[in-house]
Write a structure and sequence with these properties.
The protein is mainly α and about 90 residues long. About 45% of the residues lie in helices and about 0% in strands.
Length: about 90
């Protein structure tokens, strides 16, 4: 593989990481290469984000459901099956 890759890092993050790794005697380039090698060897496959459907507004939901939902006239009346528990 003769390709060269130019990987750009957040300079502040790279600087902080370099300071931390330096305290352990670890070269940042070696650490990054070791990490990338472990990813390649593990066969890591990134999850592809599912396409998010646009969210519906309450008005749109009402329009879609209009005439499709109903409640009976006695909806709020006590149920006969529960009478003994309500006394």
């Amino acid at each position: 593989m003769d390709e060269q890759f130019n990987i750009s890092l957040n300079s502040s993050l790279a600087s902080d990481a370099q300071m931390v790794l330096k305290t352990y005697g670890i070269d940042i380039n070696k650490a990054v290469n070791d990490y990338l090698e472990s990813i390649v060897k593990s066969g890591y496959q990134p999850a592809i984000a599912a396409k998010k459907e646009p969210e519906l507004t309450l008005a749109e939901i009402r329009k879609i459901l209009k005439g499709k939902l109903w409640t009976s006239d006695d909806f709020d009346e006590p149920l006969d099956d529960l009478k003994e528990y309500m006394e």
